[in-house]
Design a protein that fits this description.
2 domains; Alpha/beta knot; single chain; five-stranded mixed beta sheet; elongated; 60s Ribosomal Protein L30, Chain: A
């Protein structure tokens, strides 16, 4: 039996208010155990990743129900589906390029034990990431480089913040993203024989002169303060990027891209 869309025209509908609140507040998403996904590309990647859709909300003035069915595939019928007026949809949509559809899905949960490790695996570790935009951009780097996993340690932002999903173009669903504490990650690295390389301004070793072979993890801190002492002290090696100009550091996403693609280049872009 096919799901029949339920019409919503009022911007004061309780569901519209709830989703608008969850869009804005991480604690409301966490309490409900859901994430909010906007955009056709992002939703298609969430479908491919096997996420469970609780609710599908679309605006018939922008996208047809047939297009919604095709986009969401097997996720359509198990979900509650709502057809919104343009006014109601504008309350839950954060951008004009959403494509007329917003999805409420179960929040994915992955553990360190889920990560696949090969003899040439490259992992990215981010400590205390604060900005959803940076996290999303780094997810795109991780996807492009085809790393073995992205580990978020002690984050200061919701890793499934709608802004992170948008800036990642949905790559938060194509990469194995795991949230863990410093202690959990340190134990996991040692248990699996993975060498850690801390990107650190005061390091004495340049990345292009460093042996990056074998199972490795590239560790990065925040743009404001860099890595904390515990990560610097625990790292197997400390490395830096040569800076030939006036400034002494790069945007964290740029630093991640440089070191990650160098590690993958040495593997002929085949970490398996």
């Amino acid at each position: 039996m096919q799901t029949i869309p339920i019409p919503i025209s009022s911007t004061k509908n309780p569901l519209i208010k709830d989703i608008s609140l969850m869009q804005a507040k991480a604690k409301e998403r966490k309490k409900a155990g859901v994430i909010i996904i906007e955009g056709k590309k992002e939703i298609s990647l969430a479908v491919s990743a096997g996420l469970f859709f609780r609710k599908i909300l679309y605006c018939p003035d922008i996208i047809s129900v047939q297009e919604v069915r095709e986009l969401t595939g097997t996720c359509y019928d198990p979900a509650e589906v709502y057809a919104l007026s343009a006014e109601a949809f504008s309350r839950i949509s954060y951008r004009e390029t959403t494509g007329g559809i917003v999805v409420v899905a179960d929040e994915p949960h992955k553990e360190l034990s889920c990560l696949k490790i090969s003899e040439q695996s490259v992992f990215i570790i981010l400590e205390a990431v604060e900005k959803p935009g940076n996290l999303g951009a780094i997810c795109r780097v991780a996807d492009a480089a085809k790393v073995s996993g992205l580990i978020i340690c002690d984050p200061h932002t919701d890793i499934y913040n709608p802004n992170a999903i948008r800036s990642a173009l949905g790559c938060v669903f194509t990469v194995d993203v795991v949230q863990a504490s410093f202690e959990e990650t340190r134990s996991w690295l040692k248990r699996n024989g993975i060498r850690s390389f801390a990107a650190e301004l005061n390091a004495s070793e340049f990345y292009h002169e460093t042996d990056l072979s074998g199972k490795i993890a590239l560790v990065f801190g925040t743009e404001a303060t860099g890595l904390t002492a515990k990560w610097i002290d625990e790292a197997d090696r400390r490395i830096k990027i040569p800076m030939g100009g006036v400034i002494d550091s790069l945007n964290v996403t740029t630093s991640v891209a440089i070191l990650t693609f160098e590690a993958m280049r040495r593997r002929n872009f085949n970490p398996d």
